[in-house]
Amino acid sequence: MKLWEIMGELQTIFSPKIAENWDNVGLLIGDNMKEVNKVLFCLDVTQKVVQKAIDKNVDLIISHHPLIFSGLKQITNETVHGRKILKLIENKIAVYSIHTNSDFAINGLNDFIMDKLNLDGEKIIFNEREFDDYNPIKNKMECVHSGFARIKILNEEMKLEDLLERIKESLGISYVRYVGNKDAYVRKIGLITGGGSSFMYDIADKIDVFLTGDLRYHEALDALEDGRILVDVGHFESEYLFVDMMEQEMSKFFDGEMIRHFEDEVFKLG
């Protein structure tokens, strides 16, 4: 399958038009006419990912976090970033990144993680929107459907302590951080994967508890004094299953080899 054909399908599922303005998504390295037989999915394009792609003759890496994010003025062997990019280009390995557009897309990462928690209740898409947009690769108009946070209204309220255990068990992680009383009961659960704290005030009056990653001290302190409940799942921990989601989505149209790569957590507990 040609890379441009894969890009067309990915644009249908995860339209770049719903990515945040500051984001950098899409094809970041590579020739869109390249034939793709092997794809590797990852959260971040690390040195391990690059070497694994080379060793396994991968044609395309699909990452959640963009390899090229802020402005680059040099690509040299003097930096880790430069060495990774040079290796990828030298080995003709393409890189395609799907970041906030995968978070916000319907059936994207926010939905995938919320569904993974297997909570009984109604799921609501906050700030839901639909619009028609032109897909230049497929040469046709398509309906784009997205929304920011996901809110689950449980059929029956549950104790925060039980929710914390459900999160750890469902996502396969060993711990979470939280703000609030673990004996409190919650029914309306908000979620944004990754570092979604900038959205928590938009839905604060609609939820009992907010799940995200990368919560800062003063955000947590303000929430505590305001009587709100926050759960910091972790940035990596809330998004590493992007790999599973992408394998699921790609299998619908790609019949080549798909390789999943899971990195170790960045932060360790001492």
Describe, in plain words, how this protein is organized in 3D.
The chain is an alpha/beta fold and 270 residues long. It folds into 2 domains: 115 residues, 3-Layer(aba) Sandwich (Udp-n-acetylmuramoylalanyl-d-glutamate--2,6- Diaminopimelate Ligase, Chain: A, domain 1); 136 residues, 3-Layer(aba) Sandwich (Udp-n-acetylmuramoylalanyl-d-glutamate--2,6- Diaminopimelate Ligase, Chain: A, domain 1), CATH 3.40.1390. It is built from 9 helices and 13 strands. The protein has a 6-stranded mixed beta sheet with strand order 5-8-10-11-12-9, sandwiched between helices. Strands 1-4-3-2-13 form a 5-stranded mixed beta sheet. Strand 2, helix 2 and strand 3 form a beta-alpha-beta unit. It is globular. The model has no long low-confidence stretch (mean pLDDT 96).
